[in-house]
């Protein structure tokens, strides 16, 4: 096997190409003023050109002189481990440290093991306080669907530098704040008390060790995606030159919703002295994660109870407005102290537990802290919580088994692309942290746009569900059903929202939180000019269509007719009735129109120079309304006459209403030009064009072109500029054949290549201000055989949170929508499964560098195990069934592998 050996010298990278012990070639890649990671990116680009087929490498060493010459590079943040990680990820190959080579094991095996490790682990070396650190913490979050803990070490406390937080699903509270001279109400996702805080102090000093005032020699954080175990290794030195190695392990028990545990080990490296440990139960915390929210009211609870006895503490809080109670009970045990030795100090908002012990140089001292978290919104566990933890190892073993069962159902295995494999697992992991089959059945919640990872969007539930739910529909249908019940339980509030706005039926809110009220803010801060402006995003009524789509997707994939009869049909009928009431007949065109809406684009809120917000005949909205009216007919046919009568009586929807829906379905208006471009909304073609090249040259990052224009005193309403897919979202939701049928029924005749034309037209006018934008366009590009474009956009979407491509948004929580969408597109676009039809259909489109892909999913009550390769599909169903592969029908036998070649 041919490998590369890297040696990093002061002004060059020395590369040797070897096969076993034979030197094949050498290269010197010079550089000056090494800047990390920029120079590493330049070097790896050169390496790819020189060695395009390399499959592995060894990072031999970094010479000491390298750090002496390149003063801006630090041993902490630019260590050998970090260089190895960066080069490995940029080259998309496993790279070994020289120390990882084994004389007993052949190099091919060691590299394969390293690639497997990298695909299951997140590693961060060093420490960069501030927004970059916040992003790392989001990506290192651990959780179980009920709670999420950001990936901080126990020494980190709430500050601009780092942000520990404990989030509980459904924990919302509303508070008023004064903004721009007016009082506004905002409902927030609440940061609850922090029980993770542990600090130490060496005898004879007056300082508690922390990352700001101490010398940090080494910090490595690891997240094992397979098991949900967070580990940190730190070597730290106080101002008196006491050096300590501190190791922390942290888990949230996936099998027990209420439990999380910390194992904390202390090793003095150059001294023997007394050490004092302080563990804090901290109720002084507040919401601080999102910088632009920091001038809003940040404290959302008051403490109702603080108790401490021996090694136990209790803190109970109640949110100020929503009146939700949260209780945390902690127990601290260890191998070097007696519980009676702990000194408890109860302060106004926190409890400090301290213990002092004599520490010997190089000895290891380990304590465990077990925390049980309950919340009154989870009524069953509030009164009957999980059994309290007694051992970290036992909790971890139990949680590990639960994670194993989740991965068995949801893991996607790729051959030929290490980084795509890693990123798909990162995305799957974070979705399971955000909602889990183990812990969500008791909860009345859905998946927030930022998971249980941060406070952006105030932890609200958006239309992102249209991207998120398919992950659960395919892998965990019972959890998908529970997430849909969150919407059913707020149906009455959606009907109230509709009445208040002058409509009938159910109008779900753009932003939903605790009770289903409209929680969209009225003002929005533009960070480019620091000004608050009106926010009209409440007009994105298409969120109700996303809910309808997910109901249909769940039913179509699961065959759960009982859900439809008990809940789904009622929601669909009420949503359809809302759209019926929103449509108006225009006698001059003999068509219906829908106005006062915004599309998925989000940049366009009104017409140029208009004093009223809202747009007319948004194509995505209108065509999805037609789709809904069509599918409603099928859904209602599942109910017998008695069940239909009961439903119509409950909803007060009449035969005339249904007749009107049928008429709208055939006569709803969209605008189409002579080239077959479907206007994003009526009047879109009259808008001005943007000089994109000039904008890129002037601003660099133009993702949020709306903010740029507003900061210049202009408006995106005047321009053909989109944040993300709008009209094109239709083709993400529906098969092109279905859209063709809808257009034909409406009487619109478009050219055969209209999809390609629309894709190119809107792609040239889209700034990709949302992480979701790229993945939608990637799917469409593959559909029209623009393979290179599809792959480029797919890769950008895959990396969007991992590399924080939007410049700081990952700091405020991961993006559950794009994470779920990348998984969905991997399975439906590249592996080629289609779950929207009666029979499972497979049309593979594997990217050129993927050898094969293996995955599991459920479809219509059948569990499938599938491997798709370049020339074959291997498929094993749990029941006898028929599948269609490459337009040919095949009969499959239960629990038998069938290989279909093509």
Strand proportion, as a percent range, falls in 25-35%
- Unreliable stretches, pLDDT < 50, 5 or more residues? none
- Within CATH, the superfamily of the domain at 131-402 carries the name Glycoside hydrolase, family 65, N-terminal domain
- Radius of gyration over alpha carbons? 29 Å
Which second-level CATH architecture of the domain at 131-402 applies? Answer: Distorted Sandwich
* CATH top level class name of the domain at 131-402: Mainly Beta
Helix content estimate: 25-40%
Would you report the number of β strands? 36
* Backbone structural class: alpha+beta
Biggest sheet, spatial arrangement of strands: 6-13-14-15-16-23-20-19-18
Q: What shape does the CA trace take?
A: globular
N- and C-termini, Cα separation:
32 Å
Largest sheet: 9 strands, antiparallel
Let me know the average pLDDT.
95
The number of helical elements comes to: 24
GO molecular function, one term: carbohydrate binding
Keywords: Glycosyltransferase, Hydrolase, Transferase
Pfam families: Glyco_hydro_65C, Glyco_hydro_65m, Glyco_hydro_65N
Domain Glycoside hydrolase family 65 N-terminal: 131-376
């Amino acid at each position: 096997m041919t490998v590369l050996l890297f040696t990093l010298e002061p002004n060059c990278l020395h590369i040797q190409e070897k096969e076993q012990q034979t030197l094949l070639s050498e290269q010197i890649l010079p550089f000056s003023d090494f800047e990390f990671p920029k120079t590493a990116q330049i070097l790896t680009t050169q390496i790819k050109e020189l060695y395009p087929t390399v499959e592995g490498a060894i990072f031999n060493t970094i010479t000491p002189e390298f750090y002496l010459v390149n003063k801006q590079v630090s041993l902490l943040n630019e260590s050998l481990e970090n260089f190895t990680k960066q080069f490995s990820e940029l080259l998309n190959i496993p790279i070994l440290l020289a120390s990882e080579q084994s004389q007993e094991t052949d190099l091919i095996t060691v590299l394969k093991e390293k690639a497997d490790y990298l695909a299951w682990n997140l590693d961060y070396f060093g420490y960069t306080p501030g927004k970059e650190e916040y992003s790392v913490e989001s990506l290192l979050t651990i959780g179980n669907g009920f709670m999420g803990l950001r990936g901080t070490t126990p020494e980190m406390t709430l500050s601009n530098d780092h942000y520990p937080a404990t989030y509980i699903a459904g924990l919302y509270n509303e508070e008023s704040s004064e903004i721009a001279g007016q009082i506004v109400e905002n409902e927030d996702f609440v940061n609850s008390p922090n029980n993770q805080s542990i600090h130490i102090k060496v005898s004879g000093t007056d300082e508690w060790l922390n990352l700001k005032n101490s010398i940090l020699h080494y910090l490595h954080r690891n997240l094992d995606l397979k098991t949900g175990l967070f580990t940190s290794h730190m070597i730290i030195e106080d101002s008196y030159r006491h050096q300590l190695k501190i190791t922390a392990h942290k888990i949230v028990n996936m099998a027990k919703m209420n439990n999380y545990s910390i194992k904390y080990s202390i090793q003095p490296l150059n001294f023997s002295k007394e050490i004092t440990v302080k563990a804090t139960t901290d109720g002084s915390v507040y919401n601080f994660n999102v910088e632009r929210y920091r001038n809003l009211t940040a404290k959302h609870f008051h403490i109702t109870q603080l108790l401490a006895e021996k090694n136990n503490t209790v803190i109970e809080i109640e949110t100020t407005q929503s009146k939700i109670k949260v209780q945390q009970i902690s127990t601290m045990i260890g191998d070097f102290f007696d519980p009676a030795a702990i000194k408890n100090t109860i302060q106004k908002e926190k409890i400090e537990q301290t213990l002092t012990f004599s520490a010997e140089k190089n000895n290891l001292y380990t304590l465990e802290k077990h925390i049980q978290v309950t919340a009154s919104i989870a009524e069953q566990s509030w009164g009957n919580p999980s059994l309290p933890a007694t051992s970290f190892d036992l909790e971890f073993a139990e949680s590990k088994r639960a994670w194993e069962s989740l991965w068995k159902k949801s893991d996607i295995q790729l051959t030929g692309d290490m980084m795509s494999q890693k990123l798909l697992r990162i995305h799957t992991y974070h979705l399971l942290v955000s909602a889990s089959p183990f812990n969500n059945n008791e909860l009345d919640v859905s998946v927030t746009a930022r998971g249980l990872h941060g406070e952006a969007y105030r932890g609200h539930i958006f239309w992102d569900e249209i991207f998120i739910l398919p992950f659960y529909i395919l892998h965990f249908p019972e959890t998908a059903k529970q997430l849909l019940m969150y919407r059913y339980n707020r149906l009455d509030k959606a009907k109230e929202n509709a009445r208040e706005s002058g409509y009938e039926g159910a109008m779900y809110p753009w932003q939903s939180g605790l009770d289903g009220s409209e929680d969209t803010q009225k003002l929005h801060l533009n960070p480019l000019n620091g000004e608050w402006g009106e926010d009209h995003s409440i007009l994105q009524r298409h969120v109700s269509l996303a809910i309808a789509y997910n109901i249909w997707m769940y039913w179509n994939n699961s065959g759960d007719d009982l859900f439809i009869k008990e809940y789904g049909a009622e929601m669909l009928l009420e949503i359809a009735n809302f759209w019926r009431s929103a449509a108006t007949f225009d006698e001059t065109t003999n068509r219906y129109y829908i106005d006062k809406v915004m599309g998925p684009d989000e940049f366009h809120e009104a017409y140029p120079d208009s004093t009223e917000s809202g747009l007319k005949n948004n194509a995505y909205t209108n065509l999805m309304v037609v789709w809904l009216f069509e599918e409603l007919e099928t859904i209602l046919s599942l109910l017998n006459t008695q069940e239909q009568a009961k439903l119509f009586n409950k909803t007060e929807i009449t035969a005339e209403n249904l007749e009107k829906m049928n008429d709208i379905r055939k006569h709803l208006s969209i605008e189409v030009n002579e080239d077959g471009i479907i206007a994003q909304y009526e009047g879109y073609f009259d808008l001005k064009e943007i000089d994109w090249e000039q904008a890129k040259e002037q601003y660099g990052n133009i993702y949020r072109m709306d903010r740029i224009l507003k900061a210049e005193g202009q408006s995106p309403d005047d321009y053909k500029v989109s944040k993300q897919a709008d009209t094109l979202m239709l083709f993400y939701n529906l098969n092109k054949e279905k859209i063709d049928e809808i257009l034909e029924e409406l009487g619109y005749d478009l050219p055969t290549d209209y999809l390609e034309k629309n894709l190119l037209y809107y792609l040239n006018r889209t700034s990709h201000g949302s992480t979701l934008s790229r993945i939608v366009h990637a799917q469409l590009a593959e559909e029209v055989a623009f393979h290179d474009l599809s792959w480029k956009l797919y890769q950008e979407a895959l990396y969007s949170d991992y590399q924080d491509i939007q410049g700081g948004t990952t700091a405020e929580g991961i993006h559950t929508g794009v994470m779920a969408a990348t998984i969905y597109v991997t399975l439906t676009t590249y592996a080629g499964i289609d779950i929207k039809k009666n029979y499972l259909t497979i049309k593979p489109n594997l990217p050129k560098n993927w050898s094969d892909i293996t995955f599991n999913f459920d479809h219509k009550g059948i569990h499938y195990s599938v491997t798709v390769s370049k020339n074959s599909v291997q498929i094993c169903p749990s029941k006898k069934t028929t599948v269609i592969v490459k337009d040919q029908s095949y009969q499959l036998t239960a629990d038998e592998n069938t290989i279909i070649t093509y």
